[in-house]
Amino acid sequence: MTSRSLSPQSARGRQAEARRNDLAVLDAARDVFAAQGAGAPISAVAASAGVGMGTLYRRYGSKTELLQRLCVLAMEQAIEAADEALQAGDPWAGLCGYIQACVEMRSGALASLAGWIEMTDEMLSTALRGMTRLREVVGRAHRAGSLRADVTALDIALLIEQFSRRAPGPAGGQDAPEEERDVRARLLAIAFQGLRAQAATPLPGRAPSLTRYVGRWSRGPVA
């Protein structure tokens, strides 16, 4: 065994540390892209995460690779939330819990990157896996009669994207984060009432298209 070899325990420790670092960068990226949009510089992500640009590029190689990795991580977290929702005894509570969890971690904040980076095979397969889970969550709520029949899984995904954006207005002030949480909680409660099957009126327009939803990611990479 050479000095550079790692024991299985050390390797697992390195992997766990790398995932923690990935998640810290992901949280920072969500904050930055929710506030500044897809054009936000990676330097802002690095500063928010408390790491140097050199550290990011040593690990990921390029801005595009970093963003692709973050998208996969975000989708994996949403899949974990869907798995928890499917374990809930009450399908409506499971659906609401899924939406709440995704909104709290701003899982849709990276949607602004659509069209800015190339979709990899891993991104596509993870996205399809996530949509399958979400359809299962939505299907349970439909079968239970608690979710209005004309709401689709894509409606839920796009709703989460909307709530993942940072509310407009001044960001300063000691009470700003608490006020933003209160506003988000109130609007989520209103949204949940709108998703209820009881006394629902027909939704306007056509249901969102999966082709268009996925097609947003088909354009070119970051310059």
Produce a short descriptive summary.
With 223 residues, this protein is an all-alpha fold.
Note the gap between the termini: 43 Å
Mean pLDDT, nearest integer?
82
**Spatial shape:** globular
**Parts with pLDDT < 50 across at least 5 consecutive residues:** 170-174
The CATH homologous superfamily name of the domain at 71-215 equals Tetracycline Repressor, domain 2
CATH architecture title of the domain at 71-215: Orthogonal Bundle
CATH topology descriptor of the domain at 71-215: Tetracycline Repressor, domain 2
Helical fraction: 55-70%
The CATH class designation of the domain at 71-215 is Mainly Alpha
Percent of residues in β-strands: under 5%
Return the structural class: mainly alpha
Largest sheet: none
Strand-and-helix sequence, N→C? HHHHHHHHH
Describe this structure as you would to a colleague:
There is one protein chain. With 223 residues, this protein is mainly α. 65% of the residues lie in helices and 0% in strands. Helix 1 (8-36) crosses helix 2. It starts with 7 loop residues before the first helix and ends in an 8-residue tail after the last helix. The model is unreliable at 170-174 (pLDDT under 50).
